[in-house]
Amino acid sequence: MFGFLRKKKKKYGIPIYVSEPTIIYHTQTERAALKIIEERLNSNNFILPSEYGLKPTHHMIKDAEIFVAIGIVGKFTSLVVREIKTAQELKKKIYTLNVARKGNEIYYDFFEGIPEDMEWLNEEETNQLYEDFRGEEFSGFMKIFLGDRRRQW
Q1: Which pTM value belongs to this model?
Q2: 110 φ, ψ to 5°?
Q3: d(CA 69, CA 110)
Q4: Torsion angle, CA of 50/53/55/60, rounded to 10 degrees?
Q5: Which of helix, strand or coil describes residue 142?
Q6: CB–CB of 132/25 below 8 Å?
Q7: I want to staple 77 with a disulfide (CB 3.0 to 4.6 A). Which of 21, 32, 34, 144 is the partner?
């Protein structure tokens, strides 16, 4: 409720660019992913696209030492795919965080590199994935998987 009064956490560690699907911007899933990345890589010095809305941020990848790609249910969205390609061209160290759901449980799998079984979606496939998440049949699923968009846990 009074998130604006919350004291900002001091940034530490190396710069990390976090490439994430727009569907998880400002969700509980995003907060949980950032916590895992911070614990695994000992840094909370994130370059986070969700802080810039829908403005392009791929030019900021060059400022990071590490690149973390977030996939959902074993898939990279088209935006994340484009940013992975940029990170590869810049020879950045790449990690993957895959967010998956089994029953009512959410799992976060963290890998060094990019697992071969991750599916790389194009724009059309990404739009279809988002439609599926937003569809009637997934109304409860989306809230369980992504949480609602409230700023607090």
Answers
A1: 0.83
A2: -110, 130
A3: 10
A4: -30
A5: helix
A6: no
A7: 21
